[in-house]
């Protein structure tokens, strides 16, 4: 598949979109990298950093000449943006997104597949940071990181391969999952952990905060993420997230009961089980 696109448009040139732009520029994978955003200041920062070659707040103008469009905004905005982009691009243009949930996005697209002008494959790069904005973007953000592709049963294989070639050109490894399976697994691997980190941070009393060290900071780091972005993710994947929170609550209750009962044997068994899972994943 091609590893060069004359014009790539990035809608939302923040951390993820800006990093994609920097990777495209660093690897000379595109001649033009157009950024589309709501803030002139943010677009100016992205351009100054080399993540885009030009910027615009006009979505239709920004995608009109694109060979490939990446939508890297909050998940709640993606379906409506895809609708607007589809109406403005040239027929056959490739579209993808970087949303952390997939079922609602793919379902919205598929409901009108027969009338679509462009070609869409859902994506989710498992890369990011609690930081935000183009100032946090890096050219190697996707290097050796996993990107999940979530085609529907009706997605042409050539389209999946074309979007896959985009992400591998940026350095990613690929995995394909059905959209619903993606959301179920990410609830456990990413979304519920954010809730746990937020709860731990919120439950830490003020006098204890001056005593926090590496363990607390490591455990709560992701709680520093953008609240609006995370509210969109958690609400869009609510059923799977609630199910996973219940699993976390059950595991927490087992630990609480062992501590309350002074049951050292059970406590060691539960902690050992958790340690084995964590150790198996490496650093």
Quick rundown:
With 283 residues, the protein is α/β, with parallel strands linked by helices. It is 51% helix and 14% strand. The strands form two sheets. It has a six-stranded parallel beta sheet with strand order 3-2-1-4-5-6, sandwiched between helices.
Q: Which characteristics define this entry?
A:
globular, three-stranded mixed sheet, 6-phosphogluconate dehydrogenase C-terminal fold, alpha/beta, Rossmann fold, six-stranded parallel sheet, 283 residues, single chain
What would your notes on this structure say?
This protein has 283 residues and is of the alpha/beta class. It has two domains: 5-177, 3-Layer(aba) Sandwich (Rossmann fold); 181-280, 6-phosphogluconate dehydrogenase C-terminal like domain (6-phosphogluconate dehydrogenase C-terminal fold). The protein contains twelve helices and nine strands. It starts with a strand and ends with a helix.
Fold blueprint:
Elements: E1 5-11, H1 15-26, E2 30-36, H2 40-48, E3 54-56, H3 59-63, E4 68-71, H4 78-88, E5 94-97, H5 103-110, E6 119-121, E7 123-125, E8 146-149, H6 157-169, E9 173-176, H7 179-203, H8 206-209, H9 214-220, H10 227-236, H11 238-261, H12 264-280
Parallel strand pairs: 1-2, 1-4, 2-3, 4-5, 5-6, 8-9
Antiparallel strand pairs: 7-8
Helix pairs in contact: 4-5, 7-11, 11-12
Shape label: globular
The beta-strand count equals 9
- According to CATH, what is the class of the largest domain? Alpha Beta
CATH architecture field of the largest domain: 3-Layer(aba) Sandwich
The residue-averaged pLDDT reads 96
Residue stretches low in confidence (pLDDT < 50, at least 5 long) are none
CATH T-level topology of the largest domain: Rossmann fold
Please identify the structural class as seen in this structure: alpha/beta
Percentage of residues assigned to helices: 40-55%
Quaternary structure of the protein: single chain
**What's the helix-strand series?**
EHEHEHEHEHEEEHEHHHHHH
Cα Rg = 21 Å
Strand content: 5-15%
- End-to-end Cα distance: 33 Å
Major sheet details: 6 strands, parallel
CATH superfamily of the largest domain: NAD(P)-binding Rossmann-like Domain
Count of DSSP-assigned helices: 12
Number of domains: 2
Strand order of the largest sheet: 3-2-1-4-5-6
